[in-house]
Each structure stands twice: as structure tokens, then as C-alpha cells.
Amino acid sequence: MLRRGCVLASVFITLSFGSAMATHTSLGANYGVTIYHPEAGDNTTIIGVPASVVTFQPGLRMGVSDEKMKNELYFDTGFSLLSGNGGVHSFEVTANYQYTFPSEKLTSPYVTAGVGAIQAGADVGLGGSISALSAVFGAGLGARTKLQNGHGAFRIEARVDHIGEGKDRGTQVIESATLFGLKAGFDIWLD
User: Fold this and answer.
1) Taking the CB of residue 188, how many other CB atoms lie within 10 A of it?
2) Which helix or strand (DSSP H or E) is residue 108 part of?
3) CA 176 to CA 179: how far, in whole Å?
4) What does residue 186 show for φ and ψ, rounded to 5 degrees?
5) Are 38 and 164 a contacting pair, CB within 8 Å?
6) I want to staple 152 with a disulfide (CB 3.0 to 4.6 A). Which of 51, 89, 167, 188 is the partner?
């Protein structure tokens, strides 16, 4: 319950702050390579084109920034559904802040951090299902290159995220893990 409250508070604060500074809005996508490092077991390398919520790396990015595009609030989101016998689904949303260091050049470095939630579940047969909600938080360093026409940007980012464990009636649905990722993406500025 505490996790849900924290996520809802983060979303509310982000939306409130975002509407006050919404000079520029953006829509973008994430692509990446991630090393999934669970607390127990082997590491897994995952490639997402675009990034996939199955790998707990969302692929759709929506943001707002101030007039100088130094301060940006953005949501990374993703939804995945695998149907059939034993269907699996997952949904992730994170609220993030990005500070881009001022530069006269087209390319500028930035830092970013965010918090959010992952909801995942599966059909387990005989009409039963399991699902759980888990917190996720992380931070990254990157570089953004503006398009010369001023309608968007490309970015590359190194990021570390931590996923908390999620259980349903004692059954582990989401394993606690750390994600080490290299993400690339683009944003289209809509105004």
C-alpha cells in the first residue's frame, strides 16, 4: 500500500509541476541493451527495439520541458501482453526528471532520475491468475543532440534501475533485480 501511495504521489507532483512548466511537449521512443541482474540466478542480456516492458524497460516516452529545455519531466511507459495458454502481461510507468546542461552546441550532456511502478501477472491455469505491483527507481547520464530544424532530438543514455520484489499471496511474480542499460532514443517536439 505504501508503494502505491508513493507512486501516486510522484505522478501527482509530476503532473502538477509539468503543467506549470509545459512550454514544450515531446513524444519519443527508447531502444536499448540491458543486463538484467537478479538477486539470485544468472544475468540476462536483453535487446529491445523498441525497448520492451517484458524486460522492465519501457519503450514510449512522453514529456514536458521549460522554455530553455533545461528542465524536463517525462513519463516512460510500456505495456506487454502475451496471450494463449498461460498468458502473461506487464505494465510499467515511471515519472522522471531530466536536467540538461546548457550548451551553445547541438549536443548537451544531461542527468536524469525517476521512480515508478511495474504491474505484472500471469494466468496459472484452472481459471486462476497471479499479479503483483512493484516499485522501480533509477538514474542515468546521457547526451542529447538537437535536430537542426529544432523539432526534436536524439539521445543516448547509460542508466541503472532497481526493481523491488512483487508477490501475490506468497508467490513471487516480480523478482528483485538491478538493470544496467544503454539506451538510445529520439524525441519529437510537438510545439
Assistant:
1) 13
2) strand 107-125
3) 10
4) -140, 155
5) no
6) 188
**pTM score:** 0.82
Query: If you ran DSSP here, which 8-state letter would residue 3 be given?
Result: H
Is residue 159 within 8 A of residue 152, CB to CB? The reply is no
- Nearest C-alpha neighbor of 46 from the set 59, 37, 57, 33: 33
What CA–CA distance (Å, rounded) separates 40 from 24? 43
Q: Which domains does the chain have, with CATH numbers?
A: 2-189 (2.40.160.20)
3-state percent breakdown (helix, strand, coil) of the chain, nearest 5? 10, 65, 25
Element (H, E) at 120: strand 107-125
Q: What angle do CA 188, 35, 121 make, to 5 degrees?
A: 80
Rounded to a whole number of angstroms, the distance between the first and last alpha carbons of the chain is: 38
Do 76 and 92 touch, CB atoms closer than 8 A?
yes
